[in-house]
Specification:
The complex is a heterodimer of chains A (about 80) and B (about 140). Chain A is of the alpha+beta class. Chain A has one domain: Beta-grasp domain (Ubiquitin-like (UB roll), Roll), CATH 3.10.20. Chain A is about 20% helix and about 25% strand. In chain A, strand 3 and strand 4 form a beta hairpin. In chain B, helix 2 runs antiparallel to helix 3. The radius of gyration of chain B is 16 Å and the shape is elongated. Chain B has about 140 residues and is α+β, with helices and mostly antiparallel strands. Chain B has a single domain, classed as Aldehyde Oxidoreductase, domain 3 (Alpha-Beta Complex), CATH 3.90.1170.40. In chain B, strand 3 and strand 4 form a beta hairpin. The chains are: A alpha+beta (about 80), B alpha+beta (about 140). At the A-B interface, strand 4 of A face strand 4, helix 2, helix 3 and strand 8 of B.
Chain lengths: ~80, ~140
Amino acid sequence: MQVRVQFFSYFKDLTETSTCTLDVKQGCRLECALEDIRSRFPKLEAMRRCTLVAVGLDYVDKDHILQEGDEISLFPPVQGG
Amino acid sequence: MKRSLKLIHEPINEALLQAQREVGAASGAVLSFSGWVRDMEGEARIAAIDYEGYEKMAYHQFDLLLDQMEKQWPIESIRLVHRLGKVAVNEPSLWVEVVAPHRLETFEALMWLIDSMKQKIPIWKHPIESPITGQGEDHGSS
């Protein structure tokens, strides 16, 4: 199945894109998809510890099971205000 | 709790927001805060900050924060405006107002909301350096 991935802030520079699609297996956990994303965009590896991840509009943990059509967002710490 | 959340791309009109204020008879405290762009970001002198937001998620996350806030304090109303896009030095990027029966809950709730916002709301700063180079006095943080 396919999920959409989007990047924000300087993650767009690191990946040189704002969106991509990812093929994952049924029942794939978010953690597994994140490893795929990092191997496709190796510059994200250095940001591992400060990467925030959302699926849809919510922050989720790494055990979250992805569904067809999910949208994963990766971004650095937020800085509003 | 009445709530108004706006992410806008034009200047924040504080005078208009104050003119639109509504305070119920049971409320004795109105606290408003605005966060302004400073001329220094770290060591760099800047001219502006370009705020990027994931707007759909920001609205959703703000709603979740306000749900928590409502459970914790007896707030009559909250209004919050965050500007996105380029905001020049000496202009506000954030305006928040809390109306409640007593001052304590307004101060606590406002502090909590802004602290939580800085952890949860997907908005990022992109400083735009000033053409005038050189270090200046750091004027502190809002």
